[in-house]
């Protein structure tokens, strides 16, 4: 009799647990551990111009509340300080006060291929002075266009300056052309095209996931493991609109969102490319190139013609012709 009671109790307990979604939750956690893939989110060019779909204030408020809603406590914003007018400064401060990291992305967003070492260093230092007192400032540098110097003198000169100032090179492992999707979107908004927002959301998530899977596979091929990834994003309207959906998709595929600080603890953070890059595909591409891979350093989802075609086919529903776009 006693045995029957405990068996019944066990059955009830099991029914209760599965009804409460506990087992599902457990299975999901288990998959995440097994998958072991992790990624940090970083947004460049803050405060980026905002005069299309959202104004700057709306964009930043949407970004902050979306990250909160999705339980992502910390991302990093890489600031371009020449854009810190009153509205821009307020926007950057809003991110800092929400607990996000503020870091250096130069004063004027120059192309290192076009500047001397001295000019570039001075641009970097101007930004440092303007940012160093922000709450949550970190001495992290994101090279604009990921260009780290096209001569040995420039590359090693910046490496030395970063070291002397106790800065980290905040590389990315996950490259994409999200900024190009944004420009197609803003152009369509300006031209009053009929935009299918659901389709735009699907396209954004689809394009970003294509790149993420691709660079993770490339990393595994060369490192025999999935490193802690750092995703390149930009402080833009499509990010404010759809980053939440991308986060959902990442989690559905077993990824864990980590802080940028945690990502920078991966051993690849101290990797120093021996090859010089005029155009840099990101750290996974650097590692691949140094171990002999010469093709496919930029994925198809980073091709403007591909993105434009996808955008026109999938997102613009009634106005087919966007021949004047970019
Ligand atoms: Zn940038």
TrEMBL record:
Name of the protein in question: Polysaccharide deacetylase family protein
Organism from which the protein derives: Pleionea litopenaei
Gene3D superfamilies (alphabetical): Glycoside hydrolase/deacetylase
GO molecular function: hydrolase activity, acting on carbon-nitrogen (but not peptide) bonds; metal ion binding
Species lineage: Bacteria, Pseudomonadati, Pseudomonadota, Gammaproteobacteria, Oceanospirillales
GO cellular component, one term: membrane
Highest taxon listed in the record's lineage: Bacteria
UniProt-listed GO biological process terms: carbohydrate metabolic process
Tagged with keyword Membrane: no
């Amino acid at each position: 009799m006693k045995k029957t009671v405990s068996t019944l109790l066990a059955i009830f307990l099991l029914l209760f647990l599965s009804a409460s979604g506990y087992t599902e939750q457990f299975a999901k956690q288990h998959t995440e551990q097994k998958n072991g893939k992790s990624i940090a989110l970083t947004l460049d060019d803050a405060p980026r111009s905002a005069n299309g779909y959202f104004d700057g204030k709306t964009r930043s408020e949407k970004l902050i509340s979306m990250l909160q809603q999705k339980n992502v406590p910390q991302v990093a914003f890489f600031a371009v300080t020449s854009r810190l007018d009153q509205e821009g400064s307020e926007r950057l401060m809003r991110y800092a006060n929400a607990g996000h990291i503020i870091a250096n992305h130069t004063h004027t967003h120059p192309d290192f291929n076009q500047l001397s070492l001295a000019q570039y260093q001075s641009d970097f230092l101007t930004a440092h002075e303007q940012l160093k007192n922000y709450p949550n400032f970190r001495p992290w540098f994101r090279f604009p266009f990921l260009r780290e110097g096209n001569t040995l003198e420039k590359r090693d000169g910046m490496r030395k300056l970063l070291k002397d100032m106790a800065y980290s090179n905040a590389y990315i492992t996950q490259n994409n052309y999200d900024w190009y999707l944004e420009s197609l979107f803003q152009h369509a908004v300006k031209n009053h095209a009929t935009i299918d927002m659901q389709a735009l959301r699907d396209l954004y998530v689809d394009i970003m996931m294509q790149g993420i899977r691709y660079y993770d596979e490339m990393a595994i091929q060369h490192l025999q493991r999935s490193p802690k990834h750092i995703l390149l994003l930009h402080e833009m309207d499509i990010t404010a609109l759809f980053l939440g959906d991308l986060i959902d998709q990442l989690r559905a595929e077993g990824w864990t969102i980590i802080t940028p600080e945690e990502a920078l603890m991966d051993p690849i953070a101290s990797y120093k490319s021996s090859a010089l890059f005029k155009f840099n595909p990101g750290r996974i591409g650097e590692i691949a190139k140094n171990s002999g891979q010469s093709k496919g350093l930029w994925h198809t989802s980073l091709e403007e013609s591909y993105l434009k075609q996808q955008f026109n086919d999938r997102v613009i529903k009634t106005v087919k012709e966007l021949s004047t776009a970019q």
